[in-house]
Amino acid sequence: MSTNNSPQYILGIDGGGSKTKTVIVSEGNIVLGTGISGPGNPLHGFEQSINSITESALLALKNAGLEHLKLSDLVAGVGLAGVNLPSLHKKMSEWENPFKKMFLASDLLVACLAAHDGKDGAVMISGTGSCGFSYVKGEEFMMGGHGFPQGDKASGAWFGLQACETVLLALDGVAPPTAMTSILLDVLGVSDEMGIVESTAGKKATHFGKMANLVFDCAEQGDATALKIIEEGIEYIMAMTTRLEQKNPERVAMLGGLTRRIVPFMTAEFRAKLTYPIHQPEIGSVIFARQQLAK
Amino acid sequence: MSTNNSPQYILGIDGGGSKTKTVIVSEGNIVLGTGISGPGNPLHGFEQSINSITESALLALKNAGLEHLKLSDLVAGVGLAGVNLPSLHKKMSEWENPFKKMFLASDLLVACLAAHDGKDGAVMISGTGSCGFSYVKGEEFMMGGHGFPQGDKASGAWFGLQACETVLLALDGVAPPTAMTSILLDVLGVSDEMGIVESTAGKKATHFGKMANLVFDCAEQGDATALKIIEEGIEYIMAMTTRLEQKNPERVAMLGGLTRRIVPFMTAEFRAKLTYPIHQPEIGSVIFARQQLAK
Q1: Of A21, A66, A246, A285, which has the highest C-beta tally within 10 A?
Q2: Which residues lie closer than 8 Å to B168 by C-beta, 6 or more apart?
Q3: Hey, is the C-beta of A87 within 8 angstroms of any chain B C-beta?
Q4: Minimal Cα–Cα distance from A110 to chain B, Å?
């Protein structure tokens, strides 16, 4: 297909664990409208995922005042968590989708394309989970992202788990006292060690992720235990970055909800290696669709 | 009640997560018969717990050739996990039990009484979980035992989790290669990083506990990563022991399924502080019952 055929409008869709966001853009990737619907991660439900994709796309058209357009007239780039698994990629590809054409990519690939405006690059992501990813000369490379509790080091869930662990040790008198103790008790709404144990037993990553911010709050006040946790997290991010650099990306961007908390604790030297992302992930979906159309 | 009233036979019952064991003893705590039934931990099901207690007691009578005795003629000491929680202690105490009299204690107290033949002492326990406990001048003190993954350091589940974490880091090239990698893949029956992630995602402590032995196997062959994990575990056990010693126990015993693996890695100096348990926990239940009868 030649670029002469490229349509005026493109839909860029990013389906994540908590919401699905669609933008409709004109040539030059100017955002004309935005639509947000429910969770779009097909790992957590295929039907919900395809409903969210369709709904957010229709909302984006409405938001842009382009209700006269039909989804069947439009090309969509869709970035979804989980579609790096072959079985899920196949299932999603076979969906009789409402679009003129749908180009499917992993959430990591569209985030990376967005971060570097379509150029080769790498991303370090630290949100509830963590992972590293590079896309260089058409080759995707992923590292980390091993899940909670055995992986996802330097993620929100990991920082929260470290907080929990060290506070419990401090309360038992086998680790130094830490300012995190009283704040953790407050955050969990409990009054003692047993309360922490009961309120965290069997909980998932998102629950521990809520305890991440207090580590940074306490470190900013000089708490030695909190600083040590952050140091270990940053060491991991540095080791990941070194591995990603071996793939020769043009840039490495740091993304995800914890970025603004972690970056201030890095050395100036290491911080200088990292860039901010250029675009939001849904623009990465647009870029991916344009790249595929141009092939 | 005076000791003149003490019955000839006593039942000692230990109800744990996987089985319930009852012994019937004569004066002098000579074991005449043993009965084993299903799980007895009331945290995992009250009905199952009371059924297992009754069943194992009847089996012990049969095993001793004392079927002519009735449970209603016999005093029972019962050690159960979870009854340190007041709500569960109340529920179990209110059970219309089949015994002449039932004396209820935590699994930790009966293990400690058993380890030290009823004398004041402390125990360090490392099985699937871990914790420390002392019983001195009638005062119970518990530490650790915070559950998986945020606590239970130096337990089987903790060693397995560390193995998993470090192997995943090694496979990503951000930690040194370790001999644990190939053995962990074998133990889990998978062939790569993704296989480890899929086979451990969302799994409970017992699943990770199965990966503990390989840490010790590899450390015995000199693997540096495995040795470092064991060192951290032993540091925790030493810190716990120091805290327990502040309670002035006469002895500190090390118990639990991992003991025989951990102890050889301790320094001779620290190892000299620890003793073997004198009796099995169910004898602790007998000792507890006799102490209560003598009050």
Answers
A1: A285
A2: A146, A150, A151, B193, B196, B197
A3: no
A4: 21
